Amino acid sequence: MAEQGKQEYWRWPEGTWVNPGIDWRKGRIITAGVDVGSVSSQAAVLVDGELYSFSNTRTGSDSPDSARKALSIAMEKTGLTVDHIDYCIGTGYGRVNVPMAQRTLTEIACHARGANFMYGPEVRTVMDMGGQDCKAINCDDKGKVLNFMMNDKCAAGTGRGMEVFADLIRVPVWEIGPRSFQIKKEPPMISSTCVVFAKSEVVGLLEKGVPENAIMAAYCSAMAHRIMELLNRLGVHEKFVITGGIAKNEGVVKRLEKELGIKTAEKVWHKPAYKAYPFDTQITGALGAALFAEAMVGKGKVKSVRKT
Amino acid sequence: MIVAGIDVGGKNAHVVILKDGNIVAQGAAATGIQKAEAAERLYKETLHKAGLKQDNVGRVVATGSAGKRVAFADGVIADAAADARGVNRLFPSARTVIDVGAEEGRAIKVSPEGKVLDFAINEKCAAGTGTFVEAMARALEITVEEMATLSLKSNNSIPMNAQCAVFGESEVVSLIHQNVEKQDIAKAVHDAIAGRIASVARIVGLEKDVVVIGGMARNAGFIHSLKKEIGMDIIVPDDPDFIGALGAAEAAAAGVLERKVEAKS
Amino acid sequence: MQAFYGFQDGSGDWFIIIDTDKCNGCGRCAEVCPAQALGVGEDELDPLSGKHIACVTEGERKKIRYTCAPCQPGYGEEPPLCVAACEPRAIFHSEAWRQSFAKK
Lengths: 308, 265, 104
What we know:
The complex is a heterotrimer.
Chain A: E1 15-18, E2 30-36, E3 40-47, E4 50-58, H1 63-75, E5 87-91, E6 103-104, H2 107-119, E7 125-129, E8 134-139, E9 145-151, H3 159-169, H4 173-179, H5 195-208, H6 212-234, E10 240-244, H7 250-260, H8 284-298
Parallel strand pairs in A: 2-5, 5-6, 7-10
Antiparallel strand pairs in A: 1-4, 2-3, 3-4, 7-8, 8-9
Helix pairs in contact in A: 2-8, 3-6, 6-7
Chain B: E1 2-8, E2 12-19, E3 22-30, H1 35-49, E4 59-63, E5 75-76, H2 79-90, E6 96-100, E7 105-110, E8 116-122, H3 130-140, H4 144-151, H5 165-177, H6 182-204, E9 210-213, H7 220-230, E10 234-235, H8 243-253
Parallel strand pairs in B: 1-4, 4-5, 6-9, 9-10
Antiparallel strand pairs in B: 1-2, 2-3, 6-7, 7-8
Helix pairs in contact in B: 2-8, 3-5, 3-6, 4-6, 6-7
Chain C: E1 2-9, E2 12-19, H1 28-32, E3 38-42, E4 52-56, H2 58-61, H3 64-68, H4 81-85, E5 91-93, H5 95-102
Antiparallel strand pairs in C: 1-2, 2-5, 3-4
């Protein structure tokens, strides 16, 4: 694991955004979704069902603190506080530890909802790869889950699998995708399915003098293959979208598209009004949770807990 | 007649040389990336220890995940068959053999004659192998030997949620941050893998005598956890990691030269 | 809706599959499971439906391969206890167990 003072190759940049076009004080229903993953945490705030703000942070060793941090960063400098929120839903691996949430929902339901909102009603298959899991979800035009398959037992085909590799070859995760294409010929994929055994294989390739970029290509290829196996088990239908951190790794995404023979949907907001807003694939879960909260309050299924 | 058995595994190679049925030399070495070369080197070194030359050896049988790569072997036998023969020579009363190496774990149901009746494998996943324990030892910043001794001091049972060596490492680090005693963590690691191995063994049925071999058998903490998990006594031979090679040597002595390997795909 | 509970790793796909449309939430599978790996609760994937159905308990999902092994799903003529107890035939195991026995 990374030590103090040593460069941390797995640490991707954190982010936050507030919608300049919305004044939350004029809104009727304010809801929030907090997705506490094993590796990253996100929060999304909606005002009357419109995206108001979101944050994307690294989960610390304490889940409740990570949840608080994610939400407070999403509300930073807006004047909004937890007391103004009508309903908050927690999701993700650490969902039981979201202290300000009124209830929790599985991230599978939230990702389907969130993807439907972000990419539009044509989405039928969502593949989400988080820090310690990978899930394939088929949904309908309303974002309701039709079936799903999840792997959170095995590090192969999860964000952690990519981070372990990045640490091993000492290349920052966000460079791996682009560099994996700076090669002469596509190499055979890493043959070990297990990340631990794959590490030995990578060491062997490094010792043989195989160029680093080619090794990155081989690893991305293997990861794409693992994901494809999971997806094919479930059945992939277009529009096919990828959410979570891995969507930012072109090395894996492009190879997956090639193996499936299906292109992933373009990373643009479905709603034309959102065109200029940043499109962060990691907020899908939190966004879905906030949307569920909005539906529940709006339909009178739950009571608002707003204090001010 | 002098025969040799060579077991080339995921991490280590073992050689056993028999002369008229008696062990005259044995050797072990890490295989590294160039497994075939390492195995050959080890074979020559072991022969040298016994004052023998390659020409003196009547027959060589190889086994192990990389056994096929031993070009000079007269025959190759399946890991399970080698394990069964090796254990049968030492413990004819054995009916269940559990072999946990660096990269594979297997359970074998053996006949009184040392034949394989049934087997189940845990492969392609580090969580059911010695690699899992090594990874956790690294996370605890101790050696595997220290981990074995430490775990025997613990009386607490903490469940491990992770079923993966990579996630397990994160879990161990998190337990350390929560100030859980290292001995309790060590025991939790052994309990976790013992649970998985026992489940694989239950597929073939746990019938006494149960003999555990392979590198992991040297880990007293693991053996203790496994005994508790299966609720039965366990026999661990001396040099448990040499039993595969011993079995291959036995096969050589018996004139067995199968070339078939366990159907794994 | 087919809910897959379990995992896929290098050794295969190890899932218990529950058809949530067929499942009536009777809980017989949970009663007969010797490992207490099954439970009945809110349909977590359709939280607005209010339906109660069977699922694999969270703690077991990552080790289901090992949990189910003693019941030998897919081996021999007899189905495992949970499958036998399910009247609407809503629960079944993935192929990996059967394939692992087929090697014999």
